[in-house]
Amino acid sequence: TERKRMEEALRTSERLLETVLDHMPAAVNLIQGSDLRLLLANPAYQAIAPGKEMIGRTLEEIWPETGRHFSALCRQILDSGQPHNAHDEPFLIRRQPDGPLEPAYFSWSLHRVPLPGDGGWGILNVAWETTERKRAEEALRASEREYAAVFERSSVGKALADLESGRFTRV
Fold first, then answer.
1. Max alpha carbon distance in the chain (Å)?
2. CA atoms of 74 and 110, how far apart (whole Å)
């Protein structure tokens, strides 16, 4: 009876973890072994490259364009235990197996984690794609540069004022 209760508690815990990972908006994967194979990838991670098989494949098989650099970093983390964090890091990735290289930005972290049983250490990768935000920021900067150029080079006098204070902010 106790064993059945423990097994049911374990199944409940596994279902809960699966539910959390499946609904998490961050891309999550778990990398195992010295050859760095994906043991787990949630739907948000798979959505980065929906046309690619991931589970059971190495990082270099999944991401041949960036896998070598990423694999070296993972091995360093496995050896040192020191986590790694990156903010808005640019990559060129293939979202489809035979697709073009596309620029993409990600904020991500890597952490060494113990694997169940005698599985040794693995790498937990949590990532957020920031490509759309970076594109919006770049478009805003370009628009601001264009506006400034038009404002400064115009032969007609112009002035901007703050409506609350009544003061000129740009002439």
1. 88
2. 8
- Report in angstroms the alpha-carbon separations of 58 from 7, 39, 48, 55, 115: 32, 10, 16, 8, 17
What is this structure's pTM?
Answer: 0.76
Distance between CA atoms of residues 27 and 129, nearest Å:
8
**Within 10 Å of residue 46's Cβ, how many Cβ atoms?**
16
**What is the pLDDT averaged over residues 111-128?**
91
Residues whose CB falls within 8 Å of the CB of residue 170, separated by 6 or more in sequence, listed in order: 151, 158, 159, 160
pLDDT score, position 67: 74
Whether the predicted pLDDT of 129 surpasses 80: yes
pLDDT in the model for residue 24? 86
Asked if residue 51 lies in contact with residue 62, where contact means CB atoms within 8 angstroms, the answer is no
